[in-house]
Amino acid sequence: MVAGVLLAFSTIRDRKKTLAALIISGKVTLQVLPVLFFIFVLMGTIEAFVNKDTIAYLLGRGSGVRGILIAEVVGSVALIQPAAVFPFSGYLRTSGASYGAVAAFVLSAILIGISTLPLEIKLFGPRFTLFRNVLTFALILLLALLIGVIL
Amino acid sequence: MKSLLKTAAIYIALGGAIWGLIALVSPARGEIVGQAVGDTFKQTIEIIVAVFIFIGLFQVWVPPKTIAKFLGKESGWKGLILASTVPLGIGGSLFTILPLVQTLLEKGARIGVAGAFITAWAGKLPLLPLEIHFLGWKFALVRLGLLVSSAVIIGLSLEKMMERRGKR
User: Fold this and answer.
1) What's the CA gap between B2 and B10, in Å, rounded?
2) Does B106 fall in a domain?
3) What are the residue ranges spanned by the domains of chain A?
4) Is the pTM here over 0.90, yes or no?
5) Stretch 47-106 of chain A: residues touching chain B, C-beta under 8 Å
6) Cα–Cα distance between A133 and A72 in angstroms, integer?
7) Are residues B17 and B81 in the same domain?
């Protein structure tokens, strides 16, 4: 709905730009939708094989810092588009993961990437890369703990 | 474009293969997987389409290159504050954001701005509808607030660490 209104508004302001926007949207769709499909299959697979109690045990409220760390490490290693992070996190949440663990997964999946390390080192050098990732990892742990307390 | 299609095909094939394998070994479990995929798609397709439109509009009306040019010039607190808010509107993954931040440094931005920029970018405003749908508005707001307020801290710490040990 809101997207439709914005789209109409954008069309009135500038047709060319709107067309360009739609082309980008199309590309993003092509890029993300297959990944989403893959993630959904993965979610279904977890649902079919892993007991919900296991997720709740590993990442649930009682798991504390250990649960947050598990989620953070998984998020850092995961090769996943940011747009696919939220559906999967929602699934984790409904499976019993705590808000803190979910936050740790969301943030590390977006901000820390084993797969982007080579690119980051190439662009910024090894020291920047090391410091940024270590700092970010520490920050995520802290924020996840805070979110766990607040929510 | 070609590589885009190739990657798309790989993911679909991979997903299909896992699903097929499970269905082959255990049809009952295959059905659970199928149901999960179908249900999630039905629940999310509307929001996903909206988010994709958002991303396109954001990129055209607020082009990342313009942002980089703009932020490269700003130093001091203004630059840091801009760096922890402006990137919220930018889409993409680390693969697209890291080169952008490098342009930022080339244009003269300080390391603190670069660090804050990457951190704040994880706020992911274009994906907000998805986040609210799956995790609730409370979670989304708290995460966003905490992230924005800590972006400067990360930026400045990173800058300090880089300075203490010489140039990069």
Assistant:
1) 12
2) yes
3) 50-150
4) no
5) 47-49, 81-83, 86-87, 89-91, 93, 99, 102-103, 106
6) 12
7) no
